[in-house]
Every structure is written in C-alpha cells, then in structure tokens.
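Z., the sequence and structure:
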Amino acid sequence: MLYRMNVAWRLAWCGLLAAVAQPASAQAGIPAQVAELLRSKVCLGCHQVDTPRVGPPFRAVAQRYGSQPQALEYLEQSIRNGGRYRWGKLSMAAQPQVSQDEARQIAQWILTLAPAAASAPATSPASSPAANKP
C-alpha cells in the first residue's frame, strides 16, 4: 500500500513539474515526435536534455550507457520498469503508461545524444618513431 502511494505521489509530482517545465519544443534538437512523447509521458517532469532536475539529464544517460553493447534494450527496460539507486538516492519509478514501442523510440533518441567516440590522432609516417630510425 505504501509503495503504491509512493508511486502515485511521484507520478503526481512529475506531472506537476512537467506542467511548469520548459516545453519540449523549446529544448533544442528534439525531433517533434520524440518531443511529443516526452511531454505526453511526463518524462520532462523529471528529466531535461542538459540540466539535472529530479533525474539525470538525458545527455548524461547517453554518455553513461551509449558505448555499452545492449544500451538500447537496457534503457528501454529501465524506462518501463524503473530503477533504483543508479543515479544516487532517488529511484526512477516504473512507467507502465509507456508502451514498448514508445520506450524504444525514447531510448533510441537518448542514445543519439552520446558523444562521438574520440578517434585516435592520426600520425603521419614522418612523425612516427619508426620513420626516425636510420
């Protein structure tokens, strides 16, 4: 009973925050379809793209999980089932109102925010140590 009240309270709180939150369209770089999902599923009540709110920014999530091989499936499940203590003391409540397809769309977009892998600097043959040997 207490758990259900806690989940209901969190959803109400996130809904209130979403009402005051900056509209999704005002956050740069969010495709319209994803922005509508984020707004209608109340994601923006707890998350923003670059700024911490109740939960971590989407860009930080992408940075943490983007290089992992099963990141898409992991994020998809995290959105739907919630998670505990991954980002500190606060837990993400399960989001049963988000369908599997919607969770996949949101997760795919989040992963587009991951920084590109830094490529190793190219070395020219003249600057390599082997080229300097007589």
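Residues 2-20 form the longest helix (19 residues). The CA atoms of residues 72 and 107 lie 6 Å apart.

Let me know what you think.
H.
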